[in-house]
Structures are given as structure tokens and as C-alpha cells.
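ok so I'm stuck.
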Amino acid sequence: MSTPQALLAAGPSFLNPEWLISTFGLIGILAIVFAESGLLIGFFLPGDSLLFTAGLLVADGRYLHQPLWLVCLLVAVAATAGDQVGYLFGKRVGPSLFRRPNSRLFKQQNVQRANDFFARYGARSVVLARFVPIVRTFTPIIAGVSRMHYRTFLIYNVLGGTLWGTGVTVLGYFLGQIAFVKSHIEFILIGIVLVSVLPIGIQLLRSRRQSAPTGSHPPDRAQAASAPKGTTGND
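replied:
not stuck anymore, here's the structure
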């Protein structure tokens, strides 16, 4: 096994775009895009890197033999359908989503992050969130919780799914036709895997920090908060 292939095999298979595509083909790409776009458990999936790699492999003629236009069309449909499911789920569960306890695959901070993103950008967030990992998964759900007008959501959803699904795939396709990229594609795939793992690593670090035992400062803050009101005023 060559060095690039050995490095790719050393990482987790579900974060290795080349392994996913070589194993499941176009159907696997569509399933992952659908899950990452609107299912709560899909936030850790490598959507961006998967589409970029799909474009590279279409250009290289490896694993994917469908024409580029068909791959882009199906990816856009899967992304749009995923967000539709997320929206309907959010509309069904409503505000109770914000009271759901944390678990290994669900963190309230991800919901809050998407909620802040939605509050800041409004309807445009449905498009913009497509290009932000993790937020991409939770934004359509927050749109449903917020009872965003369905027609407005549908328009922005189709636009965002098309721009993201087509844009990232086409970018990989055209870069895959560059001679340097074609001759170093194994090393480029390693870089893509590392980029895929990065958001998960950051997420784990944040979770560990939040669950770590507090030092001396938080108790001091708590004591200050519980002090009699008269002690903090002017004598």
C-alpha cells in the first residue's frame, strides 16, 4: 500500500470521501448530502469535502462515471429534500427542541449557534448556512421552529441547495482537470480528509471544555451573585 493510501486508510472510513464514494457510489453521496442537510444526526458528515471529492473523481473518471450535470442535479435535489425534512421536523417539534437534553450526537450549543445565525441573517440564512458546516444541518430545523413562511423557505432552500451542491462539485471537477492536481490527487484527498475531521475535532474540544471541572473563578462569581444586595451599593 502506498503512503497516501495508507494515510487515508488510517482515518475513520465515514470521514474519508474517497472511501465513501468508492464503496457506495453516487447513491452514497446523495444519502450523505440528504442526511447532513436536515437530519440532526447528520451534522458530523463530510458534506463539503464529499462534494469536492466527487467533482475531482468525475474529472478523473474514477468510481463515478455519470456526467457532471447529472451528479450536480441529483446532489441539488438531495440537498433540497434534506432541508425540507429538517424544516418539517423543526415545525413539528417546535420550541421543545431547545429543551432537549444533550447527548453524544446532540448538543444544545449547535442548536443555539444555528438559532443565532438565523436571527442574524433571517431568510438568507437558509442559503448562507449551506456553506457553514454544522450550522448547515440545524438552520432548516430552526427555520421550522420559527414558523418561517413555507413558500419563502422553499425558494431559499432550492436556491441554497443548488448553489452549494452544484458549486462545490463543479469546483472540484475543474480543479481535477489541472495537471498538478491530477498528478497529486492522493495527497489532495488526504488534505480533504483532514479538513473533514477538523470541525469534529473542534466540536469535541468545545464539549470537553464545557464538561471540564470549574476552577476557582466560577465559585467566586457565584458567591458574588449570592451576596446581599446591600453589600454592592455605595455606603
